[in-house]
């Protein structure tokens, strides 16, 4: 028996949110265990290696699962970003330049940083991990896409989380 076949739309959405929170909790538990065992510097390096692989796998599955045009430029990236696991549990938004040649992505509420703050911990220094994650995710959508970090904790402006800018490499 498949219990999901019996669920309402609202119940399925709640299940999706729960699984997204579980996924993020597992990522956090894994990182804290690596940090406890090997120290912060090594844990961050291991996190970078993990995100390098996961971002590609997630992007490929999103492209296939939601019929996003491979090589579809910034429009494809915008659509793919909306299907990431983060999108289920973090508030985020995108902004387009007037000529639509630049896409900016902002994490408005980050559960990782919010949880750390609630526990009295310093912001996680996620820039190096984020660069690897967002570069690999976006280039899997379209190899022409270039990524630039606008800001990232702990160096983000007060009240902000991460911000990223994407452009297409000119041929």
In brief:
The protein is of the alpha+beta class and 171 residues long. 55% of the residues lie in helices and 16% in strands. It has a single domain (8-168), classed as Muramoyl-pentapeptide Carboxypeptidase, domain 2.
Topology, element by element:
Blueprint: H1 9-38, H2 40-65, H3 73-82, H4 85-89, E1 91-96, E2 102-109, H5 111-118, H6 127-141, E3 145-151, E4 163-168
Antiparallel strand pairs: 1-2, 2-4, 3-4
Helix pairs in contact: 1-2, 2-6
Would you mind describing this structure in some detail?
With 171 residues, the chain is an alpha+beta fold. The protein has a single domain, classed as Muramoyl-pentapeptide Carboxypeptidase, domain 2. Helices cover 55% and strands 16% of the residues. The chain has 6 helices and 4 strands; from the N terminus they run ααααββααββ. Strands 1-2-4-3 form a 4-stranded antiparallel sheet. The longest helix is centred in the first third of the chain and has 30 residues, at 9-38. It is globular and about 45 Å long. The N and C termini lie far apart (53 Å).
């Amino acid at each position: 028996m498949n219990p999901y076949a019996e669920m309402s739309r609202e119940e399925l959405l709640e299940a999706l949110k729960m699984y997204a929170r579980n996924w993020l909790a597992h990522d956090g538990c894994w990182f804290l265990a690596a940090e406890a065992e090997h120290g912060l510097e090594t844990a961050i390096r291991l996190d970078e290696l993990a995100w390098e692989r996961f971002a590609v796998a997630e992007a490929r599955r999103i492209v296939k699962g939601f019929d996003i045009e491979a090589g579809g430029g910034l429009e494809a990236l915008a659509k793919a970003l909306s299907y990431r696991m983060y999108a289920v549990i973090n508030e985020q938004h995108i902004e387009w330049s007037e000529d639509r040649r630049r896409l900016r992505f902002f994490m408005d509420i980050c559960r990782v940083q919010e949880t750390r703050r609630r526990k009295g911990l310093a912001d996680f220094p996620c820039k190096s991990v984020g660069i690897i994650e967002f570069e690999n995710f976006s280039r899997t959508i379209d190899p022409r896409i270039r990524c630039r970090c606008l800001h990232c904790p702990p160096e983000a402006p007060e009240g902000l989380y991460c911000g990223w800018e994407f452009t297409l490499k000119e041929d």
